[in-house]
């Protein structure tokens, strides 16, 4: 029997579309917070942010950023850059879940199920780690160009077709850690719930584990976003990381990111479970 999980690819597409619809306003705020106002070009948002910076601080708060954004474009401004993600979001989530749910059974078929006694630190399944890395890379390959276009729209900077792979390596690196962290946390939580005979709604499981995963890799996301903003084209990833550390920006935009992550992934996992369940009934009669 083929290990390719068609249901997971389709359900992953539904997951991605839901994530964009629910989480894009927070995603826009996260990006604008991660890229300092002084480096966001001459956009309308930059002018408003810089004006407020002279009155308060050089780093507008999340509330200030949201207020400036609303004044410049209303609710529609919060969905800036949403079209590239709506087009690519379904594809990249389809790739991450489809690859992951194809690699796990492939590893078990070749090497046999992993014995809990061989888990790293007693709770980390090596097959989950490897499949998570594969899923993250699959997502990154699809997401890279769409993510670059999304960031440029959010910070309102010019881009050309030749720029679509800018920050591609950073996106791959971040996603491999991000998705592997997510599935590791999900698997550990599943083990704990089974031990205690406890049930938890998919919304809460996905929201909690997504937040833990994002917190784990957040500095990489800050570097990735700044690299793709078009304002640091002459800087290396190492320079961007050192700059973020020296300025205390390693977790810049975290509050917006955590809000987006919890609600977007929570709702999306509910959709994913429903779609996958219905497709299994249709395709496999389960």
What can you see in these coordinates?
The chain is an all-alpha fold and 286 residues long. Helix 4 packs antiparallel against helix 5, helix 7 packs across helix 8 and helix 7 crosses helix 9. The longest helix is centred in the C-terminal third of the chain and has 31 residues. The radius of gyration is 20 Å and the shape is globular.
Secondary-structure topology with pairs:
Layout: H1 6-34, H2 44-55, H3 62-78, H4 82-111, H5 126-155, H6 168-195, H7 202-228, H8 237-246, H9 254-284
Salient structural properties:
286 residues, 9 helices
The end-to-end span amounts to: 16 Å
Give, in order, the helices and strands: HHHHHHHHH
The fraction of residues in strands falls at under 5%
Largest sheet report: none
